[in-house]
Specification:
Helices cover 56% and strands 8% of the residues. The protein has 206 residues and is mainly alpha-helical. The protein has two domains: 56 residues, no CATH class; 121 residues, no CATH class. It has a three-stranded antiparallel β-sheet with strand order 1-3-2. Helix 6 runs antiparallel to helix 9, helix 8 runs parallel beside helix 10 and helix 9 packs antiparallel against helix 10. It starts with a helix and ends with a helix. The site of one iron/sulfur cluster (SF4) has 14 residues, from helix 1, helix 2 and helix 5. One iron/sulfur cluster binds next to loops.
């Protein structure tokens, strides 16, 4: 078997970020793949009219897929920028491992420090439903960092638009998110979120 393919497989086995919700909110299903998803215990959802399933995937155990031979089409087909680059022999395996380790460490910090405490009493933003949703997911180990980042940025933007001050803790969380998204954008998947966060941080600093 091709040496680069083995290296890319090894990299993915110790990563799992594309299955964990740290890169994507959900993953697409092929047309007609809903039945197979249900058989695998994965609940199909509809996203913008297309079949999908929410992440984190219930079959991610640690950083590896526990149903590897039976996984869905997208799972076998997807390669992030980093794994593609290892496959092509353009990125050294050890360098790629460092990127994965760094992204996992940063994602872990962002999950551990998700600013639930600061969301109390903000019914006026009509965000209490989101708060309950994220808390429930966190407790069930189904927290999706990608969705949370969208929500967190939205919440802070509303605060700024209303002329309310942004706390030091929230600004720090936004900066850490920006750093994480910068790494994701450069090494894993391009995302418009980097510009959104950078613009926001600039606007807060004035
Ligand atoms: S994010 Fe990239 S390196 Fe990590 S498991 Fe997915 S494809 Fe592999
Ligand atoms: S089935 Fe396996 S590869 Fe596919 S999303 Fe779930 S854990 Fe990842």
């Amino acid at each position: 078997m091709d040496n680069n393919f083995l290296k890319a497989s090894e990299l993915c086995k110790n990563c799992g970020l594309c299955c964990s919700g740290a890169l994507f909110g959900n993953a697409p299903l092929l047309e007609g793949e809903e039945e197979k998803a249900i058989e695998l215990g994965i609940k199909p959802v509809v996203d913008e009219g297309e079949g999908a399933f929410n992440l984190p995937c219930p079959h991610l155990k640690g950083t590896a897929c526990s149903i590897y031979p039976d996984r869905l089409h997208v799972c076998g087909d997807y390669h992030c920028l980093l794994s593609s680059s290892v496959l092509e022999g353009e990125t050294d395996f050890d360098e790629a491992v460092l990127d994965v380790e760094s992204a996992k460490e940063q994602a872990e910090w962002l999950i551990d420090n998700a600013a639930y405490a600061n969301l109390e009493g903000e019914d006026e933003y009509k965000l209490s439903d989101y708060q309950a949703h994220f808390k429930a997911e966190y407790e069930k180990d189904q927290f999706n960092l990608r969705y949370y980042q969208n929500y967190f940025l939205y919440k802070l933007q509303v605060q700024v638009e209303q002329g309310k001050p942004v706390s030091k803790e929230d600004l720090h969380y936004a900066e850490k998110t920006r750093d994480y998204i910068e790494l994701i954008h450069e090494s894993f998947r391009e995302t418009s979120m980097l510009k959104d966060y950078s613009d926001f941080i600039e606007s807060v600093r004035g």
